[in-house]
Amino acid sequence: MTWYGEKLETKIRVPESLPEYVEQADVDKLIKALKSSRTHKRVIERNVLLIEFAAKSGLRRTEMAKLKGHFCGHHHSAVRR
Fold it and tell me: Is 0.70 topped by the overall pTM?
């Protein structure tokens, strides 16, 4: 690799594989299955919200787990770090 004509001794690591992509149809099937499950209603709504948030935000599981309640709210259109 060169930078402004000078050779750099830096090696770039290329990931061996890309993360798996989940089709929207699969997300819809999962949400439909969650909504038809027999459990407490608030738990179903929470689970559906988590699946939709994960699918649309692109966050990893660990990033979602680290989010705190004050990072987002109904009056915000985005999640803050």
Answer: no
